[in-house]
């Protein structure tokens, strides 16, 4: 869960932001009503993912709160009731991520959407392809504000070598005029490789050639920007293209994903798991159940219960990202692995310790889980899942918060 510091003197604005942030399963809202309270909170050493700061506070009328959070290396989103060009330049010079005017309720949705975009960016690799060291440094400085992981290349040939070594790149920003291979030829080469069909490609150029944008897009680019560009336009184009690509991926993957937790569903588990079963010499199956989940729903409501399942799923992916992880039903999850069985069981014990040592949801709930594991190969995957499930219920009957193995 990511801590978000909100510094705002208006009770109405605090209430709106608090509600919107609490509805987000990844964010925990920390409210401060003025500069002094924010200063005291930051001095305690608590870690904040980002801050949402009112520009004009009763005890800091000239943006001192913005400088305060930036001094503590906390990325800042500024809320302001007024906007002019001088203010825009001043805020960007200070190093804020963005500024949002408080002109409608939609502005507060913008704040939360931007925070969520920053959260997603933490796992996104961006390749900047630019032969000018000055231009590359400037583009990277902007992207660094947005929490992206950065890689660089000096031309198209260099970029293809980087892509060959790192296939997790999700966004390419490339200049047009470069030695050996220009941007238009680079995007053409990228689109010829099926591995990079979904990579977002944004072309850049300082050329006055009006047809260049069409050339980029006809060759496969998602978008084009002419240099020099406005800070805000650069961010908006990147966000819009990433959001669109993620939406397409979500539509395409929706048949395989569980709607609540966004991990694989039961149907995909059986289909993909059967392939793993047939192709692997060594396979392990685990069934994992959140202990006392019904009490969470009964005592705190289904919204908190949903948050728990989402955060529990995210923790499973963190520990078993190289395995097949899915929601089997309700609060029960399945993991299918073709890794070394001893290593898998050790990792499962570490996962259970991680569950015990953290708090879940906005209610700071302490939970445990029970696990049944089958490492003895049966006639088919379904039999292994059934065996693991029966051992899960043994773990439940044994007092919960434990592992029952079938080896």
Automatic annotation (TrEMBL):
Its EC number is 2.7.7.65. The keyword Phosphoprotein applies. The modification 4-aspartylphosphate is found at residues 54, 175. It holds the Pfam family Response_reg. Keywords: Phosphoprotein. Residues 281-407 form the GGDEF domain. InterPro entries: CheY-like_superfamily, Diguanylate_Cyclase, GGDEF_dom, Nucleotide_cyclase, Rev_trsase/Diguanyl_cyclase, Sig_transdc_resp-reg_receiver. GO terms for biological process: cell adhesion involved in single-species biofilm formation; negative regulation of bacterial-type flagellum-dependent cell motility; phosphorelay signal transduction system. The keyword Phosphoprotein applies. GO terms for molecular function: diguanylate cyclase activity. It catalyses: 2 GTP = 3',3'-c-di-GMP + 2 diphosphate. It is an enzyme of class 2 (transferase). Residues 3-117, 125-242 form the Response regulatory domain. GO terms for cellular component: plasma membrane. PANTHER family: DIGUANYLATE CYCLASE DGCM-RELATED, REGULATORY COMPONENTS OF SENSORY TRANSDUCTION SYSTEM. This is diguanylate cyclase.
